[in-house]
Amino acid sequence: MTSLSKPLTHANVVAGARLALLRATLALGALLMGYCAEVQVDGARWFGQRGPGCLLGTWLSPDACPSCGLLRSTSASLHGDLAFAWRAHPAGPVVALLLLCALLLNLDILRRCIELPFHSKLRRTGHVLFGVAVLLGWLCRLIRL
Dihedrals φ, ψ of 35, to 5°? Predict the structure, then answer.
């Protein structure tokens, strides 16, 4: 579970395995929470309880916040409602796909018992794609695409 630049010791393998397991658990948890949400125009609900609201979007406007609607959009994408997902936030389908990729990536690290250089490159690429998708989604919302 270590990158190849570190010596392959039992302690490094165990530490890497724990980190990969934590990352896989977080990705799976996010996917499950998104799938369990009931998505509506005014927000998302879990088991009848409304999710947290956005302070910046409440104080200014939903268009002023780059991530307003991203949770609803991601959840709608996981439910297959891509039209609503695009209206809520255009980056939602990308985020849903990145969560699935993060889960598969960390499961592959666990399977191999080592983090290879391409795993690190894929993770960094995912981080960049997330940032670009959120900013482009915000831009699409601002110009009303």
Answer: -70, -35
Q: Is 41 helix (H, G, I), strand (E, B) or coil?
A: coil
Quick one: CA torsion of 5, 6, 10, 16, rounded to 10 degrees?
-80
pLDDT digits (tens, 9 = 90+) for 36-65: 999 888 778 888 887 767 776 667 766 677
Contact 2, 112 (CB under 8 A): no
Mind listing the pLDDT tens digit for each residue in 3-39?
A: 555 666 777 778 888 999 999 999 999 999 999 999 8
pTM: 0.83
Write out the E strands in the chain. Answer: 38-40, 43-46, 49-50
The residue type found at 110 is: L
Question: How would you class 81 by CB atoms within 10 Å of its CB: exposed for 0-12, middle for 13-18, buried for 19 or more?
Answer: middle
19-to-7, 24, 87, 119 alpha-carbon distances in Å: 17, 9, 35, 13
Cβ neighbour number for residue 140 with a 10 Å cutoff: 14
Sign of CA pseudo-dihedral 37, 40, 44, 50:
negative
